[in-house]
TrEMBL record:
One of its GO terms (cellular component) is cytosol. Residues 133-150 have a biased composition (Basic and acidic residues). It is found in: Cytoplasm. It comes from Allosaccharopolyspora coralli. PANTHER family: SSRA-BINDING PROTEIN, TMRNA-BINDING COMPONENT OF TRANS-TRANSLATION TAGGING COMPLEX. Its main location: cytoplasm. This is SsrA-binding protein. Belongs to the SmpB family. Required for rescue of stalled ribosomes mediated by trans-translation. Binds to transfer-messenger RNA (tmRNA), required for stable association of tmRNA with ribosomes. tmRNA and SmpB together mimic tRNA shape, replacing the anticodon stem-loop with SmpB. tmRNA is encoded by the ssrA gene; the 2 termini fold to resemble tRNA(Ala) and it encodes a 'tag peptide', a short internal open reading frame. During trans-translation Ala-aminoacylated tmRNA acts like a tRNA, entering the A-site of stalled ribosomes, displacing the stalled mRNA. Keywords: Cytoplasm, RNA-binding. Residues 131-158 are annotated as: Disordered. PROSITE patterns: SSRP. InterPro entries: SmpB, SsrA-bd_prot, SsrA-bd_prot_CS. One of its GO terms (biological process) is trans-translation-dependent protein tagging.
Length: 158
């Protein structure tokens, strides 16, 4: 049997970094059923409205959409069920402290297979206001213009 190596990304939450300021990231395992794993291996999942909560010392991933496995039977899973995340107790306790202290949220950034095991990358994040988003877009545009100008100068254009 050949063991998988490396990291195969299944889904990414592209809007997360636009809507949230990421302060810290964590990796957590996922507790899944068989049909969920098979559906993920087909590369099907959506993290768009997903978030994580800490309930009674356990971390739960909520509102993630993993579609039903096409070849599944009556044993198929519910697409938007809550899924338990596998983390060390110390990490969970640190997260609880940070979330309660300053109103931060846990947002999934990506879902991937690492050495054959399903993992999720969680961000400890703070929501951005509209003016923060506009400022970030303006900074990105100005940085792009600067890089274009430098590139033109190197090529001998004006």
């Amino acid at each position: 049997m050949v063991k998988e190596r490396g990291r195969k990304v299944i889904a990414q939450n592209r809007k997360a970094r636009h809507n949230w300021t990421v302060l810290d990231t964590y990796e957590a395992g996922l507790s899944l059923t068989g049909t969920e794993v098979k559906s993920l291996r087909q590369g099907r999942a959506s993290l768009v409205d997903g978030f994580a909560t800490v309930d009674h010392g356990e971390v739960w991933l909520r509102n993630i959409h993993i579609p039903e496995y096409t070849e599944g039977t009556w044993t198929n899973h519910e697409p938007r069920r809550s899924r338990k995340l596998l983390m060390h107790k110390g990490e969970i306790l640190r997260l609880v402290g940070k979330i309660k202290e300053s109103g931060l949220s846990l947002v999934p950034l990506s879902l991937y297979f690492s050495d054959g095991k399903a993992k999720v990358e969680l961000a400890l994040a703070k929501g951005k206001k509209a003016h923060d988003k506009r400022r970030d877009l303006a900074e990105r545009d100005s940085q792009r213009e600067i890089e274009r100008a430098i590139g033109r100068a190197r090529k001998g254009h004006r």
